[in-house]
Each structure stands twice: as C-alpha cells, then as structure tokens.
Amino acid sequence: MRALCFLASFFLATSVAAADPMVLAVDGAEVYIDLGALDGVGAGSELELLHEVVAKDPRTGNVLRDRFAIGTLTVIKSGARLSVAAVDPQLIKRVLAGDVVRVLSAPRA
Fold first, then answer.
1. Is residue 109 in a domain?
2. What are phi and psi of 96, to 5 degrees?
3. What's the number of domains the chain is made of?
4. Is residue 58 part of a domain?
C-alpha cells in the first residue's frame, strides 16, 4: 500500500509542469526528491526545503504566492533521477509533497 501511495504521488507530482525540483513523497523520516545524480545530487548533498504559501488579497482579489525556507534536507542516497533525503524529526511533520527544494551543496566525496 505504501508503494502504491508513493507511485500515485510520484505520477501526480511529475504530471504537473514545474521547473523547480520538489518533494515527491514523504515516507516516515524519508523524503523522496525529483533530483538525482544526473542533476549533480548525491549522498551528502544539502538541500533547502521551501514551502509555498498562497493567499488571496481581500482588497484586490489577487492571488499572492511566495516561498519560505523551512529547513534543510540531507541526501542519503540517489539514483539517476531521484534521491532519498533524511530530515530532522522535528521538521518531518511540516514536509509536504509539492514543497520545492534548492541545492545548497554538492555531494560529499
């Protein structure tokens, strides 16, 4: 069942046309990211986790979007196109599929 949920969220996340790398799924303390070795990401890479906030301005009706850093992830293993990252236990409840990630450092040698 867990694998089915992961695959469903993977296909849902990849079907959205987005240029920014993102969290595909969260499984326990592991976070699946759509970056891998082909993107220069490997074990030890540090990633910044950004959560997007969407709010409607009540005066104008305009939809406003912004991203806020909520923490960092450390890649523990990576394939060609996907990586698995570890996250601080206090942060895990805030990580959501669709959150954006940004590479902070290269893999450790």
1. no
2. -125, 145
3. 1
4. yes
The average pLDDT across 29-33 equals 95
Q: Is residue 108 part of a domain?
A: no
* Whole-number Cα distances in Å, 34 to 2, 16, 64, 85, 95: 18, 12, 26, 11, 15
Range of 29's domain?
A: 2-103
Beta strand segments in 1-109, E: 23-27, 30-33, 46-56, 63-78, 83-87, 100-103
- Tens of pLDDT along 75-95? 999 999 999 999 988 899 999
Residues 6 or more apart from 95 whose CB is under 8 A from it?
Answer: 23, 26, 31, 49, 70, 87
Sorting pLDDT into bands at 50, 70 and 90, what band is 38?
A: very high
Give, as one character, the DSSP assignment of residue 103: E
Q: Which amino acid is located at 11 in the chain?
A: F
What CATH number should be reported for the domain holding residue 94? 2.40.10.410
Percent of the chain exceeding pLDDT 70 equals: 83
Does 87 map to a domain? yes
